[in-house]
């Protein structure tokens, strides 16, 4: 993760703001994959289920191309061999807001694609887990619940 300091050319609102953290594609990929696995484990379902596979692919596609059509997500999903990692895979380049938009949009679009009219509680746990893991790669279910929900872990588990 890289931190950018405000510059003299930045507008006053930016210059007065805190430093901006940037995340690499590799960090985002790890966070969304780990978030999907954490959610799947808590729900006692396979992390290889379509809902998670499509969500991860959608998030990573929308990270680079926020307005990508679903066809681009499908192409990436069905690619025979994994593409080589982009040269800038480790380069910090995404703000938390960009990552959050890609994760939320990817989860919503994957829900639609897998026949659900909207994201459900398990999808929401994936979002919350991924964004928590982005900042704290060692976070577990209990930390995600403590940071993102006003309920106990037992209650959150009952929603899954």
Question: What does it look like?
Answer:
- It is a single chain.
- The protein is mainly alpha-helical and 160 residues long.
- The protein has one domain.
- Helix content is 59%, strand content 6%.
- The protein is built from 8 helices and 3 strands, in the order βαβαααβαααα.
- The chain has helices at residues 12-15, 25-43, 50-64, 70-78, 96-113, 121-135, 141-148, 153-159, and strands at 2-4, 20-23, 94-95.
- The protein has a 3-stranded antiparallel beta sheet.
- Helix 2 (25-43) packs across helix 6, helix 3 packs across helix 4 and helix 5 (96-113) runs antiparallel to helix 6.
- The longest helix is centred in the N-terminal third of the chain and has 19 residues, at 25-43.
- The model is unreliable at 1-17 (pLDDT under 50).
Low-confidence stretches: 1-17
Mean of residue pLDDT?
A: 87
Largest β sheet strand count, sense and barrel closure: 3 strands, antiparallel
- Spatially, the strands of the biggest sheet line up as 1-2-3
Count of beta strands: 3
Order of helices and strands: EHEHHHEHHHH
Q: How many H/I helices?
A: 8
Question: Over the alpha carbons, how many angstroms does the gyration radius reach?
Answer: 17 Å
* Helical fraction: 55-70%
- How large a portion of the residues is in β-strands, by DSSP E? 5-15%
Task: Tally the structural domains.
Answer: 1
Calculate the terminal CA-CA distance, rounded to whole Å.
Answer: 32 Å
Structural class: mainly alpha
Global shape: globular
């Amino acid at each position: 993760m890289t931190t950018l300091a405000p510059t003299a050319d930045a507008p006053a609102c930016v210059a007065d703001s805190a430093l901006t953290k940037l995340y690499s594609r590799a960090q985002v990929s790890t966070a969304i994959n780990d978030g999907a696995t954490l959610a799947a484990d808590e729900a006692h379902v396979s992390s290889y289920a379509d809902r998670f596979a499509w969500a991860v692919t959608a998030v990573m596609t929308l990270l680079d191309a926020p307005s990508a059509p679903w066809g681009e997500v499908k192409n990436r999903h069905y690619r025979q061999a994994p593409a080589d990692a982009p040269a800038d895979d480790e380069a910090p380049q995404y703000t938390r807001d960009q990552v959050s938009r890609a994760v939320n949009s990817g989860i919503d679009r994957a829900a639609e694609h897998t026949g659900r009219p909207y994201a459900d509680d398990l999808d929401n746990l994936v979002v919350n887990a991924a964004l928590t893991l982005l900042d704290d790669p060692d976070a577990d279910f209990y930390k995600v619940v403590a940071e993102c929900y006003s309920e106990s872990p037992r209650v959150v588990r009952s929603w899954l």
